[in-house]
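Appendix B, record 7
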Amino acid sequence: KGYQTTMDKLPENAEAKHFRHSSRLDHNDDLSNGSSETPTGTVSDWGGISPVGSMVSEDPSEDVKSLRVISYEDGILDERPPLKLNASQHTAKSELSDPVLSGNALTSDMKVDLQNKLRSILHALAARHEGVGYCQGMDYIVAHLLRVLQDTILLRAVKRMPDNLSNDQLRSRMDDLNTHTVVVEEVVFGVMDTLFSSYSLQHMYWPELRCLKTCCRVFEELIKLKLPVLADHMEHHDLNVGLFALGWFQTLFLYLPSMPSTTVCHMWDIWLIERSFKIFFRVGTAILFLSQPTLLNHDLEGMMTYLNTFPDATLLRRDILIPCALQIKITNRMLVEIEMEIVHEAEQAR
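Structure tokens (predicted):
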């Protein structure tokens, strides 16, 4: 019962500053945008990769809608019970930031085209990195790159041509390039190859997933350090952190069906600039911090259901999650020290 009244806190003044910031952004959005219900730019909008075509709440006052959730994972059509997800208040700016995929707007031909591109890139990637091959989780990342880069790649290719084209001609030329060339696949493959080689992403997919499992152990220790009340609650209910964190880290948080792509892109920007996985640990900790009111009032089954679906995905918005994550102090030195302790314990246990 004590868990219901006691929660972990951010550093002094950080929590108030964070929520003031979020409230101000919410208020500005309400003033500048009308209410409309449209699919968001979530990472699961096209259903060929991740399990849910979800919607996210941009306005906490919106009425709750019931949506049917369909899973396409492993080629099996699996209808799940309806989840209560908040309707979206989607802005013109966010639509421009997600030009490629918008869930319900996708035709079957577009989905087939994207899935064919995905298959080609994954085959090429497995051939390039034979020691890694293909591992579950790569598909999420390649799919997201296709989503955010495809139109930009085609537009840049067309603009190299000397002709002055109207918008309709430009779109026609882009469609022609998309149909008759592999320029999109080549660029996305090059990006993935760079992430593997220069940003150590391949370590997440090494045989036996040793690095990935170590990340989950490090994350578990960070929860104990930063969110001790929640850590005790999870331990009391025998919740293994790896049950939910494995998918988070293996897909760089694309596994969360309601995660907006704008949040993922902001998170990845920080990763690419810092050249450190630190941001993913901070985001994971922030998600748990913001989820405490729900998690502390659930048992094992309730916590797992929540952490795998996030029925109210408001906390995953970029203007809420990222500022909160950046308030949580996690250093590279801290991560190294925790990892060394984990390795030392493993060696002693042998």
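Remarks on this record: The first strand starts at residue 64 and ends at 71. The chain is about 60% helix and 5% strand.
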